[in-house]
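Example (one chain per record):
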Amino acid sequence: MPEIRRITALAYANTGDWCRSCYGAGMIKRNSRIAAMASLASALLIAGCAERSDFPSLARRPAEDAYSAAQGSLPVPTPPAVVSEGLPERLAALLANADAAHATFESRQAAATRTINAAAGAAKGTESWSVASVALAGLESARSLAAMPLADLDRLEADASNRAVNGSDADLKAVRAAREKVDVLVEAETRAIDSLRSRLGA
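Predicted structure:
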């Protein structure tokens, strides 16, 4: 019996050493495996961070801010201005009257010019001077015909100016455009009359 116990104890001791050796080796292998996995995980995390750092930023870019600023600074489009109803027809009629008056002036101007040239240097009160004076008066009368539409345009311009203060200036622009055309005719007639009057010495 003592011999059996000694053998059993020896076997147990050997077995324990073997188990401890196996356990220690297993722990070493396990720890090595855990360390390797930790290293791999760290490498993957680092790589992932590096890859994410290459992604484009979601922050607003300067170009986007510039575009937004440009859009905000653009003027708000205004609706096209419309001329008051009936005004275009009235302006057209006044222009037609001015053109007709100017045509009358030009028809009288040629004859008056010949008469005044013939009376150039004549003394006041003489027959030639009197005839030339009548011709000059005819030109002044023709000019007054063109001045009548101009007076109407003056009134229309005053009314359109009042409306343009708190509203559209379409009427004002239309009236001024028509007035400029009539002004050109009347100014040309005035220059012609002044030239003939100085020639006659009236």
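Caption: The radius of gyration is 55 Å.
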